Amino acid sequence: MFAVFSTLPSNEDNFSSMLKDTWKFIFSEWLPNSGYEFDDNSIAFELFDEHSLGGTGKVCNIYIPIINRQL
User: Residue 68: phi, psi to the nearest 5?
Assistant: First the structure.
């Protein structure tokens, strides 16, 4: 199972910082406060498609493998 996160729309100048900020949000805010944990048996990845091309409004999806948190 994957949780999918999208960067905020950005342009060429701030696209990499939007990616970095999204990764930071996932691991420092969302994951610790969710009922899930990272699934070490799978890999996380970024999907670069037609939404991540062009000059403005670029968006990238980040896929994080998750499992239910063990209590």
Answer: -60, 140
